[in-house]
Design goal:
11 helices, alpha/beta, Rossmann fold, globular, 8-stranded mixed sheet, 8 strands, 43% helix, 256 residues
Length: 256
């Protein structure tokens, strides 16, 4: 079975950027194949990876409301469509949830996605789920066991507090989390004493380990503004050296 890596944290804390950098890391380490699931309605993971998106789960949901092809059940139709929505790249596939088309919920589409995920999962070594602010998509996708939960924060008291709350709710959601890691993104250097105190407090009061503190990166800012893929960042760049050291420490048992 693949290992599931999920992102969580309040909006704007760098979940998607972390997902893109993690994808680059796993590709470089040949810890593949990967399945990436962009579960944020405001999907933009594809932009950081230089990938174009066509069919999304939101669009499939709309098609489910119409006439199905002859001699095809809804289960068969949904499985077919999800496979069509998979964007296949070298070393990874990407599935985008997208926005719902019109009023209503994702209930039916999520039900079929959960059924299909079991079949999809067998094809991958790792699954990376880039969540929206909450973690409801994890339970909807039938991903009850999370091997690595990366809880991201910006360098603010509110971000750290939200990270603590997310850590606390994994139990009530019925999720089994093997490893919880706090990642603080865009931190000033050196880290201010007050911020370090908040980080230490959060780690001490929860089941989170401090995965790492990632400094503000001009390289990342330039990459995003220019629309270039994070996968093309060179090994010598400071941000890549930093996150490689962080991910090496987190995934050390997996790389042995």
């Amino acid at each position: 079975m693949p290992k599931v890596i999920a992102m969580a944290g309040k909006g704007g804390t760098g979940k998607t950027t972390t997902s893109a950098l993690l994808t680059r890391y796993l590709l470089q380490k040949k810890m593949t194949p990967l399945l990436l699931v962009d579960a944020d309605a405001n999907a933009n993971l594809n932009e950081l990876l230089g990938v174009k998106v066509g069919l999304t789960l939101g669009k499939i949901r709309k098609e489910l409301k119409g006439e199905l092809p002859p001699n095809m059940s809804r289960d068969q139709f949904m499985e077919l469509k999800i496979h069509q929505a998979l964007i296949e790249e070298h070393g990874f596939d990407l599935l985008v949830m997208g926005q719902p088309d019109g009023p209503g919920c994702y209930c039916a589409a999520n039900q079929y996605l959960a059924m299909t995920m079991d079949k999809l999962a067998a094809n991958y070594r790792y699954i990376i789920v880039d969540n929206e602010a909450g973690m409801e998509h994890l339970s909807r996708m039938n991903l009850r066991t999370i091997d690595y939960l990366f809880i991201t924060s910006d360098p603010s008291a509110r971000g750290i507090l939200t990270a603590k709350r997310i850590s606390d709710i994994t139990g009530p959601l019925g999720l089994t989390v093997k490893h919880q890691c706090l990642l603080v993104n865009r931190a000033p250097q050196p880290v201010p004493a007050l911020l370090q105190g908040k980080i230490n407090e959060a780690v001490a009061e929860t089941g989170m380990a401090l995965g790492g503190i990632i400094p503000t990166s001009d390289e990342l800012i330039h990459q995003e503004l220019s629309g270039a893929s994070c996968l093309k960042l060179g090994d010598e760049t400071e941000i890549i050296r930093t996150v490689t050291a962080i991910f090496d420490s987190i995934f050390a048992p997996d790389t042995l």
